[in-house]
Design brief:
Layout: H1 2-12, H2 27-35, H3 37-46, H4 50-66, H5 73-80, H6 85-91, H7 108-119, H8 128-141, H9 145-151, H10 156-163, H11 175-187, H12 197-214, H13 242-253
Helix pairs in contact: 3-4, 4-6, 7-8, 8-11, 10-12, 11-12
C-alpha cells in the first residue's frame, strides 16, 4: 500500500500542486533525477549510440528554443563538449555560435571551462561550431586583456590551446584564422600600460604564436609544442538513425516565426 501511494504521488505530483500549470520541481522529481542521474547522463551526453544521439538532439532542440540564460548556460556548455555535429548543430540552429555566450557575464569558471574544452581536442577533431562558440567566450572575456586577466589569469598553455587551431595553410581572411588572430592580437597588449613582467611574458608568447602563423619561413611548431598540433579526426560524429536524421535535416531547412512555429 505504501509503495502504491508513492507511485501515485510521483504520477500526480505533490498534494495541492496543479499538474497542468505548476512547473516547479517536486521532491519526488529531485529524487528520481538523483537516483537515475547516471542513466540520464548516458542518454544525453554520451552520444556513443544512435539512440543516445537522438535523445541529445531532442534535448538540444529544447535548449535552443528556450534560449540561453544565467540559469542554463552550463547545459549549453555541456552539450558543446559532446562535440557531436548533430547535437551541436541542433543546439546552435539559427544562432551565431560566436555570439552564443555574449549575454552571460564572464567569470573564472566560464573562462576556465572554455580553455579546458580547447585543450581537450586536437586540431580538426573539434566541431567547428563548438570551437566558434568557445572562442566567443574567450574573445568577450579578454577584449580588454587586463580586465580579463583580473577575472581569470591566462597561461602559456591557454595561448597554445588557442594557437593550435590556426590554419597555417589558409589565408588570414579565413573566418577561423581571423577570429583567433584577433584574440591573440588582444593578448599581445597584456600589461602594456603597467609593465608587469608576468603579463609581458604572456604578451610576447601571444605575439610569437601570431608571428609563427604570418612568417612563411616558420611553422606553428616553432611557437607551440608539436604534440598539440597533431591532427586527429572527430570520433564523436555518431549519427542518429536515418529516419530521425531525415526529420532533423528537413526541419532545419524550414524557418520559424517569432513564436517558434514553423512557417509554411
Amino acid at each position: 500500500m505504501k509503495r502504491d501511494a508513492e507511485d501515485a504521488e510521483i504520477i500526480q505530483g505533490s498534494p495541492g500542486m496543479s499538474r497542468k500549470n505548476d512547473l516547479s520541481i517536486s521532491e519526488n522529481d529531485r529524487k528520481l533525477i538523483k537516483e537515475h542521474a547516471h542513466t540520464m547522463r548516458e542518454a544525453l551526453f554520451a552520444c556513443t549510440t544512435e539512440t543516445q544521439v537522438e535523445c541529445a538532439v531532442a534535448f538540444a532542440r529544447f535548449l535552443n528554443f528556450s534560449g540561453i540564460n544565467s540559469e542554463n548556460y552550463r547545459l549549453f556548455l555541456r552539450f558543446l563538449t559532446t562535440n557531436n555535429p548533430w547535437v551541436v548543430g541542433e543546439l546552435l540552429h539559427d544562432r551565431d555560435p560566436r555570439l552564443l555566450f555574449t549575454t552571460i557575464r564572464p567569470d573564472e569558471e566560464l573562462i576556465d571551462i572554455a580553455f579546458k574544452i580547447l585543450s581537450s581536442r586536437h586540431p580538426d577533431e573539434m566541431n567547428i561550431l563548438s570551437l566558434e562558440a568557445v572562442l566567443g567566450i574567450i574573445q568577450n572575456a579578454y577584449f580588454d586583456p587586463d580586465d580579463g586577466f583580473r577575472i581569470r589569469p591566462i597561461r602559456i598553455m591557454d595561448i597554445n590551446a588557442l594557437g593550435k587551431f590556426l590554419l597555417k595553410d589558409e589565408a588570414q581572411a579565413h573566418p577561423r584564422n581571423r577570429f583567433i588572430l584577433e584574440i591573440l592580437d588582444r593578448l599581445t597588449m597584456l600589461g602594456q600600460y603597467y609593465g608587469e613582467p608576468e603579463k609581458n611574458i604572456l604578451a610576447k608568447h601571444a605575439f610569437s604564436v601570431r608571428f609563427a602563423y604570418f612568417d612563411h619561413t616558420r611553422n606553428m611548431g616553432d611557437a607551440i609544442p608539436s604534440p598539440l598540433l597533431v591532427s586527429l579526426p572527430n570520433r564523436s560524429d555518431v549519427s542518429p538513425e536515418k529516419d530521425f536524421a531525415g526529420v532533423v535535416t528537413e526541419r532545419r531547412k524550414r524557418k520559424r516565426d517569432a513564436n517558434g512555429r514553423f512557417v509554411k
